[in-house]
Amino acid sequence: MPIFRGTGGSGDASTDAYASQVATYAQTATTKANEAATSATNAATSETNAATSATNAATSATNAAASATAAATSETNAANSATAAAGSASSVAADAATATTKAAEASTSATNAAASQTAAANSATSAASSATSATGSANSATTSASAAANSATASASSATASANSATAAATSETNAATSATNSANSATASANSATASAGSASTATTQANNAAASASTASTQATNAGNSATAAASSATDAQGSEDEAEAWAQKTNGEAVTGEGYSAKAWATGGTGVDHTSGGGNAKDWATETTTTADNTEYSAKEYAVGIQAGNTEGSSKQWALGGGNFVMATPVTGSGGTAKYSAKYWADQAASSVANFDEKYYGNYATDAAAENAHEAAGKTVTVGDLYYNTTDNAVKYCSVAPSGTGAPVGTWLPIQATDTSSFATKGFSIAMSIAL
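The structure assignment produced for this chain is given below.
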């Protein structure tokens, strides 16, 4: 490193002091810049934490979506069960209508059978009456024949009586023939009536059998209707159960939707017993917005990592790393204290700005003359003091103030250039070594 000295007055010591001060300012600026970079890194870490919380919130939202899907599936099952119940109810109504029709037909058949039985009984009665009449007529014919024989015998005794008897016999014979004809007709009628009665009885039997079959069918259909009604009631119960389960998966918040199977969509989304602030849990709303405690007894929410001020969040939020610790006070550390304190990006930026401002107090910049440098510094409201520096573009040298001016306007201070010390008259390395050995 070159050795600097001044060209007048107290040159060497002052030159070294100013050079040291310049180096100190540069080192301070470097340190502040590094601290600002560290603060920026901390802010990035806080943003990463916020992203992690956002991911957790997304996971909770996914769980909520899965619960909503389960709720939709249960609701569909409920709808299918309700449809099945409606179908069973329709079948019951149809079977009941059929049973009613068959019962009516059975009643009609029974009525017809009863009417046929009555008709058969009446025909049998008529046949019996006709048979009785035929028997009476036959008896009358026999009696008349006997009377005719007696009359024939009496005719032999008395011709007149015989003639009269013959006439009477003829008349009686005619009557007997008529009675016989009538008896035959009555017998035929009786046979026809018996045949009709037998036919009516057979018809009545057939209709009675039909009525019994219809009654059996009606009983079977009534049983089927009862079974269908039972099935419909069971389907309705299943439908109600499915509907209740779907409702639980959708909005139950006082425990699991179904014991041992998980929590509802609403619980995962906005909160519920068994989800809120539980290890490995936490609802989506808390993961997104909770700023008074953790979301799952371990991690903080996305909002807390972004803008929160909880003391338990020892890593600090993004907003704290940007503006300041505590309630975003710039001079308050975000984490740690004393020698381990770490501050916000704004704090270190302010420190860096202060360092630059302090450096600006000492180094004016580039000017062509001492007067121009002093006037510009004073115009900025600053005071020219011993040790101040500027670069003189005319002499191509850094100059320092060795005597401060006592007023403004034309410079009255003394400015000397900083330049390397002439070492041409210094002993060479070899000579120095030889002298050291000799001494």
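Interim note for the steering committee: Residues 11-157 form the longest helix (147 residues). The chain has nine helices and six strands.
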